[in-house]
Amino acid sequence: MKLANKDLLGIKDLSKEEIDLILDTAMPMKDIIRRDIKKVPTLRGKALATVFYENSTRTRTSFEIAGKYLSADAVNLNVSTSSVQKGENLRDTIKNIEMMGFDVVVLRHSMSGTSHYVARNTNMHVINAGDGANEHPTQALLDLYSIREKKGTLENLKVAIVGDILHSRVARSNIYALTKYGCEIRVVGPSTLMPPEVERLGVKSYYSLDQAIKGVDVINVLRIQKERQLTGLFPSLNEYADLYMITPEHLKEAKDDVLVLHPGPMNRGVEISSEVADGIKSLVDEQVANGVAVRMAILFLMMGGN
Amino acid sequence: MKILIKNGRVIDPENKVNQVMDILIEDDKIAKLAEDIKLDDAEAIIIEAQNKIVCPGFIDLHVHLREPGFEYKEEIATGTRAAAVGGFTSICCMPNTDPVIDNAAVANFIKERAAKSGVVNVFSIGAISKEQLGAEITEIAQLVAAGCVAISDDGEPVTRANIMRNAMDYAKMFNIPVLLHCEEVSLSQGGQMHEGYYSTYYGLKGIPAAAEEIMIARDILLSKITGAHIHICHISTKGSVELIRKAKEEGVNITCEVTPHHLTLTDEIVGTYDTDTKVYPPLRSQEDLDALIIGLNDGVIDCIATDHAPHDFEAKDCEYELAEPGISGLETAIPVVMSLVKDNQISIEKMVSLFTINPAQIMQLDRGNIGVGSIADLTIIDPNLEKVVNPDEFYSKGKNTPFKGQNYTGWPVLTIINGKIIANDGKIVNE
Fold this sequence. Notes:
The structure holds two protein chains of two kinds. Chain A is an alpha/beta fold. Chain A is built from eleven helices and nine strands. Chain B is α/β, with parallel strands linked by helices. Helix content of chain B is 29%, strand content 24%. At the A-B interface, α4 of A face α6 of B.
């Protein structure tokens, strides 16, 4: 079985069966990472380019090493300092990458829909590594993997997503994925960071953190972008922390075996307290390892045959 | 020079005509309207119009011709040809060129260029404020003397209420409408699409309906204190329809227009991130669209205008957020609106009024009807002609249309301007 589409642009385009396939395929991949010799020849002769128009260390490195563990050649294009400054448009940059023989391009961009635009203009596989406030599908897939690994299932879980829902592609991709498993999804954050008609996505929205996390199996904590405060969306980080920082006290509202996720990088003391981030319910470190495994699975399914 | 149009269904709402008859044109005037006109003149051109609709020439009071300054997007030559094959005989061009049409010299330039390179009647709209900066009002008397039929800062709102008030007050002396682009920029800034469920679903920054409605409300209040005739451009929301309905009931001197795309497309289609769907005001929700149709039928909305906004390839070949807003609309307006007629959402008579006598009255043009002695501007539509929208065949330089690839039935087939056949079967004649 393979993925239906040439590209991975969003969770919206994936079926539940495809998500299961990716998660199942990631399991043996995770074993590879734990080996002494962390390399299999599956994608030998394939080339992967990471093109990040927005800063990211974790996601970019995760894709690169995922490709390398599978023996693909992985190259990072330093776009912010090269072509963009010389005024080259995105189509030309992508065409150049294609002509160099790359098979897959991993794209991160601050503007929603950019991976769709690139996918329309290239024969390479395109993997969306985050586009604006739209989607971050591989983050959602690694979140699902991490949850499934601990809980044994994704079906009918209660999941709270906390923070800046309005601008969050992580929130959207998680919502689109978890709704396929019948999960009860609760989004919680300040009213100014709640997108319009959010409940039509199949979630319940809350302003009160305690209400939202009562009895949940999973809490996914979003990173708060400090610059949002400057546009008047909330008064201060201090007040934000007062209302929405996850502390051990809050976790008592959730189920005993609640899992806490965070896509990173964390603002400790703002959206998550160190006690929670470093506590036994935190999956934050495990998410990073799972990210590599899930990305290996996606690359394998896209390019690796059967 | 005589042209005899035979057996067409003549629809002329102003003269309450809707019947099969013949029309005789002599030189640039309508000479005779009657059933079965006989003519012995061997020189006359006979046009067989059986099963076709013969209307007064269509008028588009909201067009961006881009010349001078943006000739890479459109020229008067290409834009007027697009108008003619699209079935329009008269167009009014917006002043957001470079330089802006904010003085008589630029208005005269447009007039001369239109006479030399244009193929339809072109009426200029002068700017409200110098360089459209919203700070000082233009020399409106001189603009009117140079042929401008209205004033507008379209593309930008006049943000300062006192400047808007003065412009309305001053324009009133010349008995011209003030065409208003209503947008509260602090609410719309950075927005890519309508704010609602789909902006949430697609992760694009939204433009709330209130950004349009707040400005319409302000300008209605300013019209009340000045008495100026205000015309609201490209209304797109249910709330706008309600505000204008109420203002009309109160006797405010207000008219408004709607575009073919706001009548037929919703925000749902933005999900492909095709930059041709990006337009300001944005494509709205189904609820808004339904309210606009009701507004057309109950007379709150006075006319349909294209807001023809042609762009070069590069302006749309990019990330959605970086794309320039606008739709090239002249060559699709009639088939798109005919689709509403086919769906029984509006009547054919209504459609013809919205494109002819109504815009003529708003802009006080002596056109828009077919009476004996009136100027021979005619649009002939084949309601059964089926065609796919192919932007590569556009006369307009702007290929930017979200209607590309769509199949429509009901296209303009002949355009007669000042007694001359200008466009025939989708082609400009003699070129």
